[in-house]
Amino acid sequence: MSEQNTEIQQFDSIILLRDHLLSNLLGEDIDAILYWAGKDLARNHPVETELEVLRLFEQYSFGMLTQIEEKKNRKIYRLSGEVIEQRLENDQFPSFSLETGYLSQQLQRLNNIYSEGIYEIKPKKKEVHLTIQMDPKEPLPIDQN
Hints:
NO_sig/Golgi_transp_ligand-bd, DUF2507, DUF2507 domain-containing protein
């Protein structure tokens, strides 16, 4: 089997699990559960740099993550790539809460600042924007990350 066929099967498997099976199992609670699952994944697999976070997004088949805006209290990222395009084509309401929770928790740990995130699907651009809001006035105790 060619490498390209293996990648296509991997994407199809991810889409099947993420957008069909989990959606059926979790129902209307999918966004809340996946968000906290993403945070838990980040807590159990911490990184040392933001660059590592960007690389892991591709490695975990979350998509290609690119920072597109940075302000004092907010960072916005673009999530794009083939897996994102396929998920948007195959499901009317895919959830990107797992990715959002994962990114939020990694940034919270790296910056030692309370962080929460939301996502917005951009269907015409075939991408998703992840917005991470950080509260510099609410630093976390080092052992709370």
